[in-house]
What we know:
The chain has 517 residues and is an alpha+beta fold. The protein has helices at 37-40, 53-68, 94-104, 118-122, 156-167, 170-190, 202-205, 224-228, 236-256, 262-279, 307-311, 316-327, 361-373, 377-398, 427-436, and strands spanning 46-49, 70-71, 83-84, 91-93, 133-135, 281-282, 287-288, 439-442, 447-451, 458-465, 468-474, 486-490, 494-500, 503-509, 513-516. The longest helix has 22 residues, at 377-398.
Amino acid sequence: MRKTYQPNETIGYVPESNVDKNCFINMQAENEKPPRYETAKDILPEIIWDGHPDAIACYNKAWEIAFGNIMQPVEGSGFVSNFIDTAFNGAIFMWDSSFIMLFAKYGVKAFNFQKTLDNFYARQHKDGFISRSIFEHNGGDAFTRYDPVSTGPNIMGWAEWEYYKFTGDKSRLEKVYYPLLAYHNWMKQYRTWRDGTYWSSGWGCGMDNIPRFYTGKVENTYDAASMYSHGHMVWIDACFQAVLSAENLILFAKEIGDTENIQALEEEVERLNSYINDNLWDEDTGYYYDLLKNGQLNGVKSVAPYWGLLSGSVKGDRLEKMVSHLEDKTMFNRPHRVPALSADNVNYDPTGGYWRGGVWAPTTYMVLSGLQKNGYDRVAYDIALNHLENILACFKETNTLWETYQPEFVGKPGSERKDFVGWTGLVPIAVLIEFVFGIQINAAENKIIWTVNRTEKHGIDRLPFGDQTISLMCQARADDTQVPEITVKCEKDAEIEIRYSGKSVSTTLFALRDKGI
Length: 517
C-alpha cells in the first residue's frame, strides 16, 4: 500500500534545520470566537474626508465584508489561528493572504488579521516547503512540493516586515523569522536554475495567464503552458522577489540579533542583482524581461519587473525609464491604472482578460509601494487616485468590490467574483490612507510621515500606532501651496513629518495633548 506522507514527517525529505525553530508547528489551535463587524466597527479607524461620501461608504463596506470572512480553525486541520478567508475557493492562498495583511493591519485593534499567516507556517514541511494554497477544511496542501505551480510568490516576509513597521511588534519578528528563512532556503534549493536564478509558473507567480513564453498572438485566453509550466525560463518577478525576501530577512536578522545567516543572504542579493541587471535588462526598450530558454529576452512588458522597485534593485536612469512606462499612455497609463499587461502587447485585452490587461488591487499596490520607496510620491499619488476613483465608480453602481477591473472601461469589473475582500480591500483602505491621503506609519521608529496631497478637510480617527491610537486631521486649504493646518491627538510622544508642495516640516508630538502644526 502506498504511504501518504505528512508535513511533519522526515521520510522523503532533506530536512531544513530552521524548521526545528518553527514555533507554529504543533501549536495549540486558537479557540477564541472572532469578533463580528457590528462590534468591531467602533474600534476600527474612522475616515474623515469632506465631500467624498462614496469613499467613506466603500471603506466601511470593505471592513464589513472582511469581518464576515473571518474564520476559526477546523479541528484537525492543523490550522492554529483564526484567519481571514481568501474569498476564493475554500482555501487560503499565500499570495492573496500576504496582500490582505497589508490593509488588514489597520484593523489590528479589533482583530489581529496577521495571524492568518500563522496557518501557513504551521503547515510547513520539514524541508521548509509551504504550499501556496492550503484547504481550510482539513489543512491539506492543494499541490505537491515539486509541482511547478506548488508555491509562491515569496512575499510573506514583505507582509511581515510591513506589519512590524506598523505595530513595532518585535516579538512577532522573532517567531516568524525562522519559518520564513526555511521557506526562502527551500525556494533557493528547488526553484532555481544552476546559475542561481529563479523560475516560477503562471499559477506560481500569481499572474495566471499572462502569455510570457510568446512573442506573437495567443488565441487561447487560458493557455496551459502560460499557467502551469516554468518554460525553462528565468522569471523576472521570481528573481526580484527572491531579492526582496532576502533583504527582508536581513532586516529581520538585524532586529532580532541573528548574525549566522546574514552573509549568505547578502551574497545572494548581490549575485542576483548583478545577474538581473547584466542579463534581464533591454536598453533599447528600457525594460526588464524574462529570459527565454533560447537565451533571448521575451519582450513581454507586464507588471512583473516592478517588484524590482520594491527590492531596491533598480537604480539610476533605469529607474527613471521604468517609471516613465507607467506614465506612457501606450503602455500602462490607461483609463484605469495599472493594467497587468502593457497595452502595446498583442495579447492585451481591453476588457481585462483576467491577467492579460486586468487591473488588480495587489499588483497596483505593489507598484505604488515601489514608487514611494524610490521617492516618486507624486506619480504614486496620481496612480492611486485614478485607481481609487475607478473602484469607487464601480462601487457606486454595484455596492461591492470585485476581484479585478477592466483597464479601458471606467469602473467596470473584470471578473464575476464580487464581495472580494479578499485583496481588493487594499484600495478603499490602504491605498486611500497611504497614497491618496499620504499617511505613512512607522511605529517601529515611532514616526509618521504625512505627505498632504488633498485640499479638502480629511484625516483619520482611531488610527493604530504601535500600542496607542492616534487622530490625524488636516483642515481644508484654498490650494495645495497653502501651509496645512494639522491637528494630532496622541497618547505618547512621537515624531511627525509633514510634507506639502515640495516642503517638509518635522516636529515632536507630546503625549496626552492636542497638537496643532
